[in-house]
């Protein structure tokens, strides 16, 4: 039977249930016995029926869309999260609407106003730089979840990794390989991830009895270009260093290139550790030792949690573990 001629009555007869039960399953408006729900879904599938979500949205007053504010379209890490978000909404009836906040508070607020004007049913913020007060206002207005950023008081509406612990473990790995003069190329100075990764760097050195040398700490902005500039600055300062911990993999790519241009070998002369485990990192020359953030899984969890909030349920979101991927960009000092 074609989708266009299949009716709720047909489904009810095939599943041996009432039409009202079929309607409840389609609209997901009331609790239906799991066996009965499965029978209805099987009947819908065998008859080739797909719910008309547009009609459902008109009847319910819902838009069946979700605003997703990313920070940089094309960013490998946020692309991973976005893919997880898409997978998480698959089959739910909700469609994600992506907009770009461009790491600018004013731009972010503007695009949020735009998606709110589309009457979205919920909001996912991937990272972001807006104030806690603005976040609180959003939370009061509609179901909202923040991804990739820890916000105080939002324990059940944030999806993030322990950046301090992950950075600490990465630097400890370098220390275990005998490195003592470890430089760091930071991220954007006001960015919470950058702040926490620096704290992990400082903590690991402190635990090893090493004071942070300000001359080995370079400002960056999560870009490859900032990695190149940081290496040039380090070499101009003339401070000895045997390893560089980078705020993300993009920075590490720039550090690797700048060292190569100066005839400095990786890892024979200088070791490098990144953060994020972007897709290309395993294929760098040499393959990059880096901290893996499970971006895809984080996106899926955020989408699933937001669906629960939009349906009036509560959700518990996990703190994700970041795992060090040991490859070939780190060598042991003799």
Describe the protein's architecture and organization.
Keywords: DNA-binding, Repressor, Transcription, Transcription regulation. This is Catabolite control protein A. GO terms for molecular function: DNA-binding transcription factor activity; transcription cis-regulatory region binding. Residues 6-60 form the HTH lacI-type domain. InterPro entries: HTH_LacI, LacI/GalR-like_sensor, Lambda_DNA-bd_dom_sf, Peripla_BP_I. By secondary structure, this protein is an alpha/beta fold. The N and C termini lie far apart (73 Å). The mean pLDDT is 88. Helix content is 44%, strand content 15%. The protein contains twelve helices and twelve strands. It has three domains: 3-51, 434 Repressor (Amino-terminal Domain) (Orthogonal Bundle), CATH 1.10.260.40; 65-161 and 295-320, Rossmann fold (3-Layer(aba) Sandwich); 163-293, Response regulator (Rossmann fold), CATH 3.40.50. Strands 2-1-3-4-5-11 form a six-stranded parallel β-sheet, with helices on both faces.
């Amino acid at each position: 039977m074609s989708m266009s001629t299949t009716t709720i009555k047909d489904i009810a007869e095939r599943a041996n249930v009432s039409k009202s039960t079929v309607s409840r399953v389609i609209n997901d408006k009331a609790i239906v016995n799991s066996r009965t729900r499965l029978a209805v879904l099987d009947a819908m599938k065998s008859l080739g029926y797909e719910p008309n979500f547009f009609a459902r949205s008109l009847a319910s007053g819902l838009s069946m869309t979700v605003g997703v504010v990313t920070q940089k379209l094309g960013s490998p890490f946020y692309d991973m999260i976005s893919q997880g978000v898409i997978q998480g909404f698959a089959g739910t009836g909700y469609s994600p609407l992506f907009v770009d906040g461009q790491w600018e508070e004013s731009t972010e607020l503007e695009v949020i106003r735009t998606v709110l004007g589309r009457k979205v049913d919920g909001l996912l913020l991937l990272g972001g730089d807006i104030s806690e007060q603005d976040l609180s206002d959003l939370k009061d207005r509609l179901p909202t979840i923040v991804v990739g950023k820890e916000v105080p008081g939002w324990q059940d509406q944030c999806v993030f990794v322990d950046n301090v612990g992950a950075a600490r473990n990465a630097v400890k790995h370098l220390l275990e390989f005998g490195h003592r003069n470890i430089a760091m190329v930071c991220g954007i100075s006001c960015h919470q991830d950058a702040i926490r990764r620096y704290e992990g760097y400082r903590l690991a050195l402190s635990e090893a009895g090493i004071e942070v040398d300000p001359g080995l700490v370079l400002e960056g902005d999560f870009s490859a270009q900032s990695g190149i500039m940081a290496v040039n600055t380090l070499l101009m300062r003339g401070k000895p260093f045997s390893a560089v911990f980078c705020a993300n993999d993009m920075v590490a790519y720039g550090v690797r290139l700048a060292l190569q241009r100066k005839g400095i070998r990786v890892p024979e002369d200088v070791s490098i550790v990144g953060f994020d485990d972007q897709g290309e990192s395993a294929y760098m020359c040499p393959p990059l030792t880096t901290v893996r953030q499970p971006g895809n899984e984080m996106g899926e969890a955020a989408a699933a949690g937001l669906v629960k909030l939009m349906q009036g349920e509560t959700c518990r979101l996990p703190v994700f573990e970041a795992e060090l991927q040991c490859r070939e960009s780190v060598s042991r000092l003799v």
